[in-house]
Amino acid sequence: MTLDLGTSGARQRVADLMIKLWTTSVVIRRRQARMNSRLRVVRPDLSGALRGATRLDRSLYDLLREDPRARGILQQHMPAIAVTHARLRRVSQQWTDLKRDLEAEFGERAVADLIDSVAEETKQAALLVQLRGPRQRELRMGRPTRRLTRLAGWVAGPQHSHLSGAWLADLAGDPDSGLTLTGRGRLALAAGFVVAALRLRLRDATRRLWCPVDWLIATDSRVHTAITMLVGTLAIYIRITGGLAELLGNGIQTCAVAGASLYALSRWLRRIRGIELASRPPGEQE
Q1: Does 110 fall in a domain?
Q2: Is the pTM of this model over 0.70?
């Protein structure tokens, strides 16, 4: 039987319980993480067991209670955590009952399709419930920052496609180490990624323009041939416009200065372009 979402109200009931489940789970994780961080300060020897723990097992709990400082932290945080766990159990039971009733009325496949259709939107709603005030604004700012970062990856081009994932990871930061950015900070960082992508694309474009120059200055024979042709062209021009007397007078000096300047330019271009001449094999040396 097809599930009629409009008349049954099942979609709203499923969405409401999903939000309660996710928000309660988030509260438990945050309270547990806050308590664990304080416990790691007073008991650094148990830092490995406490890091990332979502629930204290009995042996670890008994070990912590032997320390007066750790026992005070437990007494301060555990009641709130226990209340939240009880709330989660109640909501989980409500979820189980609702799912069983819907499956009995509409079938397992229809209910599974319903849950999949509302899962993503209710997850976002649950996050918005938990992140109020400035943190909620940061969450809303996350979408434009991700779009800017993806735009930067597209602008950078296929040669730098790996940067898109790295930039998205930089936006996320490292929450475990306390390295996170505010919403405005992420937006500024994403704008910087776009600027960097534009510079990369410009560098790739100018690199193609440098290819003929790099090929010319890669060997001495090409440089000498180009200088000879340019100086010879200059000498012919002086001969045509000024005559033989002009060529033998000032023309020789002009051609010598031009040749020396072109040779110095080729050496300078090699240095800034990072081009080194390959050494010739011993058998080919004159």
Answers
A1: yes
A2: no
Domain that holds residue 263: 218-284
Which 3 state secondary structure label does DSSP give 2? coil
Residue 251: Cβ-neighbour burial (10 angstroms; 0-12, 13-18, 19+):
buried
Q: How far apart are CA 171 and CA 192, in angstroms?
A: 11
Residue that the structure tokens 């709130």 belong to: 80
Low-confidence ranges of the chain (pLDDT < 50): 1-3, 5-7, 131-141, 285-286
Phi, psi dihedrals of residue 174, rounded to the nearest 5°: -135, 85
Alpha helices, DSSP H, located in the chain:
5-8, 10-42, 47-50, 58-65, 68-106, 108-130, 134-156, 162-172, 183-217, 220-246, 252-273
How many domains, in total, are found in the chain?
2
Dihedral sign for Cα 10, 11, 17, 21, please: positive
